[in-house]
Amino acid sequence: MSAQTRSRSQRTPGERFVAAVRRRLRRTGIWVVLAFLAVWTIFPILLTLSISFKTRADVSADPGFIPSNPTLQGYASVLAQEGFRSAFINSLVVGLGTSVLTLALAVPAAYAFVRFRFRGRHLLLLFTLLPRLIPGLGLMVPLYRLAVWLGAIDQLLTLIVAFTGTVLPLAVWLLVGFFQHVPRELEEAAMVDGAALPKRVRYVVLPLALPAMITIGVLAFREAWNEFNLVLALTSSPGSRTLPYELFLMTQTTGFQNNPGQAAFAIMTIIPFIFVYLRIERFVVGGITSGAVK
Amino acid sequence: MTTRRATERRRRRRAKRAASRPDRGSLVGHSKATPYVLSAPAILAVSVLLAFPVVYAVWGSLYDTEFIGGPGRFVGFQQYVDLFQDPKFLWSMSRTFVFVFGVLILGMTLGLVFGFALHQVTGGMRFLRGVTIVPYLVSGIATAVIFRLILNQNFGQVNRFLEFLGIPAQAWFSDPNLAMLASILAQVWADLPLAVLLILGGLQLMDPQLLDAAEVDGATGWKRAWRISIPLITPQISLSTILLSYQALTSLGVIIALTGGGPVDATRTLTIALYETAFVDLETNEALAIVVVILLFNALLTLGYVGLSRRYNLDEQ
Question: By CB distance 3.0 to 4.6 Å, which of A171, A284, B84, B116 could disulfide with A106?
Answer without folding.
Answer: A171
